[in-house]
Amino acid sequence: MEIITGLLLGLSTLLFMGAVFFYLIKTTIVSGKNAGAAVATGIILGDIIYVILLLQGFSEILKNESLIKWFALIGGILLLTIGISYLLKKKHISEDKNVATVSLWIHFTKGFVLNFINPFVAAVWIAFLAINESQFVDQSAVVSSLTITLLIIYITDLLKVFFAEKLRRFLTPSILKKAYRFMGIIMVLFGLKLCYHFFTLF
User: Fold this and answer.
1) Cβ proximity of 25 and 160 under 8 Å
2) 91 falls in which pLDDT band (50, 70, 90)?
3) Residue 2's closest CA among 157, 115, 151?
4) 130-142, pLDDT tens digit by residue?
5) Residue predicted with more confidence, 45 or 96
6) Torsion of CA 102, 109, 202, 15, to 10 degrees
7) Residues 96, 184, 120, 199: is their CA dihedral positive or negative?
8) Helix H segments across 56-138?
9) How many CB atoms are closer than 10 A to CB 14?
10) How much is the average pLDDT of 172-196?
11) DSSP 137
């Protein structure tokens, strides 16, 4: 039963198309599959940390409004910074496409930070834990289900990288430039959304 629950919860995250999703796709298209995989690994590390914290009984801390609002502000500022840098970028996109100038560790770190400081990610994992605890009395079943969820999320993120890499081959520099601007606008909008949540949580 925990296998089915974990699988369904993991697949349900395919419906979430937040800033991290667009950053994953953008990184893969511009910098290649290795960079995309590094972002995906950073993302899943953030998820793993949230799961460990929740299983250790830190759910009340993660629900704390003060913590949530500051996470929202930090995340908002970070997304705004990234988004504006995309919009103001002068360098031709085709140069980025063919030269891996950014360390995989930087891609990994950005994926981790963008995911971990998003308060909505914490809310999702709190909800997932609640669903599991309402279904399973045995703690080991809860752990198994959440582990499967994490595995499914990582696999689906790697599949997104795979398909984005395939798409990358057919994109012209002109289309890539437009995609870069689009990603910048998306990042700015998500950043503004998080900043808005910071002020409304007072």
Assistant:
1) yes
2) low
3) 151
4) 888 888 888 888 8
5) 45
6) 90
7) positive
8) 59-62, 65-87, 93-98, 104-116, 119-135
9) 14
10) 78
11) S
Q: pTM score > 0.90 for this model?
A: no
What SS3 class is residue 169? coil
**What DSSP string describes 178-200?**
HHHHHHHHHHHHHHHHHHHHHHH
DSSP assignment of 30-77, as one string? HH-HHHHHHHHHHHHHHHHHHHHHHHTT-HHHHT-HHHHHHHHHHHHH
Residues 6+ apart with CB under 8 A from 157: 24, 40, 43, 44
CA atoms of 106 and 166, how far apart (whole Å): 23
- Report how far residue 71's alpha carbon sits from residue 27's, in angstroms, rounded to the nearest whole number: 23
Say which amino acid occupies 41.
T
Distance from C-alpha of 123 to C-alpha of 104, rounded to nearest angstrom: 28
Please enumerate in sequence order all residues whose Cβ is within 8 A of that of 197, keeping only pairs 6 or more positions apart, or say none: 68, 69, 72, 76, 119
Whole-angstrom distance, CA of residue 194 vs CA of residue 138: 36
Q: Contact 177/93 with Cβ under 8 angstroms?
A: yes
* Token reading at 11: 């697949």
Amino acid at 83: G
Lookup: tokens for 90: 């002068």
Residue type, position 102, single letter: V
